[in-house]
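Before relying on records like the one below, remember that each one covers exactly one chain. Contacts with other chains, cofactors or solvent are not represented anywhere in the record.
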Amino acid sequence: MKIFLCEAIHQNAYDELKKYGIIIDDFNQIQECEVLINRNLKMDKHFIDQCQSLKLVIIHGSGYDDIDVDYLKHQHIHLCHTPEYNALSVAELIVTMMLELSRKTHLLQNDYLDNQINTVAPIAYLGHEISYKTFGMIGVGKIALKAAEILKNGFHMRIIGYSRSLTPQLAQEYGIEYCACLEDVLKEADYVSIGTSLNEDTYHIITKKELSYMKPSAYLINTARGAIVNQDDLYYALVNHQIAGAGLDVLENEPVESSHPLLQLPNVVYTPHMGASTDEALLRVGLAVVDAVKKYKNGEICEHLLF
């Protein structure tokens, strides 16, 4: 069996993968491959048509908004993903961004190295604590709930959340406060974390209107998908201090140039889609991918088969 893999996975997972087939990384041979492992490939109709032998696509992670799912179904190609295995790593990045923005560590280091600071404990860089503040979730999935657990247990934060699937009963089970609408989260939270998937309903759900609901002292954290937020509106809100800052692991069109307007702002912390990029998460996800390949080869159903 030939397996298409054009991006790196954890070395231990790669070594296991070799047991189940021939690994191909040449796009000129893609028509020969029965299985394709997708990390960041955009798979439109034209791309899928080149994959003449393809039977299964395995997502190295959870998101598949870059794939023409309807056409994949039309071609009778199966799709599975590997969700939840990277939740802890992304959750830890959310907390990291909250702390970095609140204590201005990114500014302190940059300005110190630029010789703009010549004293200890400069009052101009006064930060604030995140403990006992309110953490608001837009989307209440595994990543958001893991971050909420860390923040509730470690920083005694109040946790509130909204999603279309969240009910008061589920919120009680999760140990969080239920919000009936998006606006309630935006108005009450000191930190708003976006954790919803990208689809037609969530594209640009955060615009100038939604940002206007937030406190001037509040921060927006986005580790989900860049297109959920209207970037022009976010830039306006940040420049005009309508919100205090933003932590962004994703932007709408990636990769982005270093000259991107949002990256020039002192109240923005940016990482280039690194939320799941830890050794531990890559190993867990990589081994889950290998398990899916193994099950497929043995005629078994993949654990997280979507269709």
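The two ends are 21 Å apart (CA to CA).
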